[in-house]
Amino acid sequence: MQSELRKKLIDAFTNSKEEYLSGQHLADLIGCSRTAVWKHIEELRKEGFELEAVRRKGYRITKTPEKVTPDEIRLGLKTETLGRNIHHEESVDSTQKIAHRLAYEGSPEGTVVIAEEQLSGRGRMDRRWHSPKSTGVWMSVILRPNIPPPKAPQLTLITAVAVVQAIEELTGLTPQIKWPNDILMNGKKVTGILTELQADADRIISIIIGIGINVNQQLNDYPDELKHIATSLSIEKGEKLSRADLIKILLGKLENLYKLYLDKGFYPIKLLWESYAVSIGKSLTARTITGTIYGKALGITDDGVLMIEDSNGKVHHVYSADIELDS
Question: Hey, what's the signal peptide range on this chain (predicted)?
Fold first, then answer.
């Protein structure tokens, strides 16, 4: 975990609007000696930050590293809670596993676990999620909402909207959502979301939201079995993108939507979700644990449950399924 002094230093640069900050001003601001400030500056340089030092003016950050570090995420982060506590790893089996452990140990709401690489990343139904090194966003977020356990799946839909809004802001492109947890661009998957619960019978202890976003992969980075179904933001945009910027934007969007949800309920989120949905009004096949449903997607209920009307006019409420859009 980052030291509190380092967090204060990054916050100072975030609030400086790229103006120079003197060593003495930084020392006074974060409550340490000028020597300690210098040591932290050198640590930032080792991480890949480029800092300009001008006599009688001070320091300013001129370039951030290619690698996604906690310091780079915090630089310019506008959230109150999400991302204020960051657990960063080079290579992990799964960020979800670490987030579950941290949640059990009492890590605060908004804690983010992020890795450069996942060796055993997974999506729904324990499917493998391809997570190569330094190409995407592989992270998990711990939330502790005061809502009944049956409402937990709504957090998947909230996160989907936040991801779409973040991608829109970063790239100018507009992805679509395939219920409940896939983000598509030109019909190919660019993001997956996995929501898992720690709960007692009548209360939620924590919700762990896993988010995998394909950012800078190129076609040759995918195994043959994924090339026809997966894409990346870089492939769609035609340029390399900043993973750290995407994370910062996403955490801001997610925090805003989460606050809206806790304050106003799911209905405002439902309207946003449906505006991005690819399946509404389309014919589809839903494979559930009890059977297969063929029909037209009508939308989602005020609780986030998918409604499908079959050829006999019967409306099915689908809580969990694999969805395949009919061509």
Answer: none
- Our measurement of the distance from residue 123's CA atom to the centroid of its chain's CA atoms, rounded to an integer in Å, reads 14
Confidence grade of residue 185 (pLDDT, cut at 50, 70, 90)? very high
Radius of gyration of the chain (CA): 21
Residue positions forming the annotated binding site:
118, 122-124, 189
Q: State how far the Cα of 136 lies from the Cα of 224, in Å rounded to an integer.
A: 18
Based on the fold, state whether residues 250 and 229 are members of the same structural domain. yes
Pairing of strands 50-54, 58-63: antiparallel
Predicted confidence at residue 143, as pLDDT, reads 98
- Tell me what pLDDT residue 122 has: 52
Query: End-to-end alpha-carbon separation of the chain, Å?
Result: 48
Q: Which residues are annotated as a binding site for biotin?
A: 118, 122-124, 189
**Proportion of the chain above pLDDT 70, given as a percent:** 94
Query: Which residues form the domain of 302?
Result: 283-325
CA 303 to chain centre: 22
